[in-house]
Amino acid sequence: MPEYKSSLTPEGYLFSVAEAAVKKPGRKDIALIVSEVDAAIAGTFTTNAVKAAPVKLCMRNIRSGRGRTIFVNSGNANACTGARGLKDASEIASNISRHFRVKPSLSYVCSTGVIGVPLPMDRIIPTLGILLDNASDYSFLDVAKAIMTTDTFPKIASQEIKIGNKTGVIAGICKGAGMIEPHMATMLCFIITDIAVEQKTLQALLKDSVKRSFNRITIDGDMSTNDTVLLMANGILGNRPITADSKYTGAFKSALDKVTYELARLVVRDGEGATKLIEVVVKGARNETLAEKAAFAVANSNLMKTAIYGNDANWGRIMCALGYSGVPLLEEKIDIFFNGTQVVKGGLSNNKDKQATEALTSKEITITIDLHSGKSSVSVLTCDFTEEYVRINAEYRT
Amino acid sequence: MPEYKSSLTPEGYLFSVAEAAVKKPGRKDIALIVSEVDAAIAGTFTTNAVKAAPVKLCMRNIRSGRGRTIFVNSGNANACTGARGLKDASEIASNISRHFRVKPSLSYVCSTGVIGVPLPMDRIIPTLGILLDNASDYSFLDVAKAIMTTDTFPKIASQEIKIGNKTGVIAGICKGAGMIEPHMATMLCFIITDIAVEQKTLQALLKDSVKRSFNRITIDGDMSTNDTVLLMANGILGNRPITADSKYTGAFKSALDKVTYELARLVVRDGEGATKLIEVVVKGARNETLAEKAAFAVANSNLMKTAIYGNDANWGRIMCALGYSGVPLLEEKIDIFFNGTQVVKGGLSNNKDKQATEALTSKEITITIDLHSGKSSVSVLTCDFTEEYVRINAEYRT
C-alpha cells in the first residue's frame, strides 16, 4: 500500500463511510464525498453500450458542470437493473440533496460490484442517515478503502501546487482490479481539488489526462459498465479560476497528470492476481494511433502475459501479437528489449534469451519495441497473467 | 480421443513419420503426406503480418494450384528466422521433390512450435531419408499424432461421399491447443480426398468452409504466425472433376463442412487447459458481421470464460462484453440462455441463476444470446479459461 499524508487533502471537502452490507456485512461499503460549496465538476464515463444506472445519472447531472456530493457504493454495480436501477440511484441522490439542501443535479451516485442484481435499498436507505450525519468524521483514505472490491490495497495519490503565495492540492482515489481495459477509464476514480478551475478547462484537462493514463492501461481487456472518473474543483483556495491560458494552467495540468498516472499505475500493480507490472513501450511508429494499437495488441496478449509470469523471454509471442495487431510493419526492422536487454535485432533473435530471462525475474518489466517506421511512441501499462486471476474470477463475483 | 476407422482414409495417399528431435528427443516429430499422383490443392493461410517461412513457401507454391507432398514438423515454427528460415524450408522441399522426382513447387512444408529459433537442420536432413523411405508404413492417424504440440489427443475427422456407384472419402487432421483465434484458420490442418475436384472450385469451397469452422473458434485470441489449412484432391476415385455446378458439388461441400467443423470442434475441446466446450450463439442480429462481432466479444472475454469454469451463472459479464463489442444494441431487448435456461429477459435478470448454475456443471455449454434486432445468427466455439492454461503457457514454450 502506498503511503499517504492526510495533510495532502484539499480544503473544503468532507468524507464519510458506513456499513450497509450491500453485498455482505463486515465492512464499510458506502461512502460520501462532500464539497462544502458548489464545485466545478468534470467527468469521463464508460463507452460501453450497456451503462449502469448510476453512470446514466452522472452523465445527465454533469451537463450542468456543477457538483456538490458524490455517493459511492461497492458490492453492487446497479447495472442491467432497468427502470428500477435508475429509480434507486435517483432516490439515493434525492435523499442526499435534501440533507444538504442542494439541487438534485448536484448529487452524483456511483456504484461498483456485481452486475444484474438490484441495489438492496432496504439496507442502503436506513444507513444513509448514518453516512450523512457523520460527514466530518472520516478521511479521503477511508473513502478509498470503502470503494474497494477485489482490490488488495486502497489507491490514493496527491500533488501540491503553488498558486501565487498559496498552496493548493489535487488528490485522487480509485478502485480497479478487474474489468479494466483500454478504451475507457478505470472503474471508479474520484479526484478533488481546492483550486478554482473554470469548468470547460477542467473537463478538457481531465479528458486529456485520462487519455494518457487510465486509457493506457489494461488488465484483462474487459471494459466495465460502470467506469467513471469525476474531478471536482471547489475553488476554496480563492485563486482566480484557472482557464485554458492562465499562468497556472501548466502547473495544474502537470499535477493532475501525475495524480492520474500514479492512480493508473496503482490499478495495474493491483491487477487481479498480478505479480508483475509490465510497461509496453512502442517506439518508431508512423503515428500515435498505430503505436497505441501495437502496444495494446502486445499488452492484451494472454500468451505474452503468461510468459512474463513464467520468467520466459518468449519474444516470439510479442512478434506474433505485433503481427496480428493490424499495424503495418516490416518484420525485419523490429527491435525488442526486455528491461534494456535486446532480445530481437532486425526481426531476428539477438541470442540474449538467457540474459533476458534473468531480467524478467524483476517485479517491473519494460518491454520496448522499436518498429523503426516513424517517430511516434506510446507507453501502455499492464500486468502479468496468473492462476490467481483465474481463481479470483472463477470463484468470486465482482 | 475420437474414434477413427482407418478404412476412412482416401485412396492414393501415403503417410510417414519419424523422430528428428526437432525440439527434444522421444517422439515422432516430422511427418509426410504424399499423394501418389499430382493433386489439385487449395489453402488458407494466417493473415498475421508476421508470417513463418514455411507459410511464405506454401503461399508461393499454391499459386500453381497443384501439390504432391506435405512435410510437417512440430516443435519449431520456423518463424522470425529471416532468410535462413526460408532457405531451410526450401531445402527440405527440394530434398522431398528430388526423392519423388516432382517439380519443387509441388512440395509443401509446414511447421509448428516455438517462434524465433532456426530449424535444427543438422537433425532434420539426416532423418528425412528415413521419413521418405518409409512412406508406406504409416497411417493418417500417425501423422495427426506427430504434428501435436500441446494437444492432448490427435484430431482426425472423415466423411464418405457417394459419387455415382463409387464412394469417395474426405479426411482431415489438425493440431490446435494454443494461439488459436478468430480471424484465421487453426494452426495446421491437412485435408485429403480421393475425389476429383477442379482446383478453383476446391479453393472456393475450402475458403467458405474455413470461414464457418476454423474462423469461428477462439481459445485465447492470439493469432499464430503459422496458421495453415491445406486441402488436397488427387482424383484417384476417377470421377468427373467436381466444378461449381456439378451434380455432386452439394454433397462434397456438405461433407467438407462436416470435416472442418468436426476438426474445429476438436481443437476447441482440446484448448489449452480447457475443461468445457462453450458455444456462443448470437441470434437476432442486424447482419452476420454484427452477429459475429458480438459473439466473438463474448467468446473472447476472460471474465466470461473464468465464470463458466467456476460454474458461475454470471450473465452480467456477458451483458458487459456485448456492451463493449461495438455492436449497436438495445439493452432492454436482450435475452440470454445458458443451455436452455433463460437467465436474462429483456435485459434484466430472469431470476433463474440457481437453475443456470446447475446447467453450467455440464461439459458442454451453449450460451444463446438474442439481440432481437434482426434476423442474422452466428455460432462461435470457445472453451473455458483455467489455471491450467496459465500453467501451460507460463512453463512451456509452444
Written overview of the protein:
The structure is a homodimer of 398-residue chains. The radius of gyration of chain A is 22 Å and the shape is globular. In chain A, the strands form two sheets. In chain A, strands 1, 2, 3, 4, 5, 6, 7 and 8 form an eight-stranded mixed sheet that branches. Chain A has a six-stranded mixed sheet with strand order 12-11-10-13-9-14. The first copy, chain A, is 32% helix and 27% strand. Mean pLDDT of chain A is 89; it is low at 179-186. The two termini of chain A are 21 Å apart. Chain A has 398 residues and is an alpha+beta fold. The first copy, chain A, has two domains: 6-269, 4-Layer Sandwich (L-amino peptidase D-ALA esterase/amidase); 277-395, Ubiquitin-like (UB roll) (Roll), CATH 3.10.20. The longest helix of chain A has 21 residues, at 249-269. Chain A has helices spanning 53-61, 82-100, 121-133, 140-146, 199-211, 249-269, 288-299, 302-309, 316-324, 353-359, 387-395; strands at 13-18, 30-45, 66-76, 107-114, 155-163, 166-175, 188-193, 228-233, 277-285, 335-338, 341-345, 348-349, 364-370, 376-383. Chains A, B: Pathway: Amino-acid biosynthesis; L-arginine biosynthesis; L-ornithine and N-acetyl-L-glutamate from L-glutamate and N(2)-acetyl-L-ornithine (cyclic): step 1/1; Amino-acid biosynthesis; L-arginine biosynthesis; N(2)-acetyl-L-ornithine from L-glutamate: step 1/4. Chains A, B: Keywords: Acyltransferase, Amino-acid biosynthesis, Arginine biosynthesis, Autocatalytic cleavage, Cytoplasm, Multifunctional enzyme, Transferase. Chains A, B: It catalyses: L-glutamate + acetyl-CoA = N-acetyl-L-glutamate + CoA + H(+); N(2)-acetyl-L-ornithine + L-glutamate = N-acetyl-L-glutamate + L-ornithine. Chains A, B: It holds the Pfam family ArgJ.
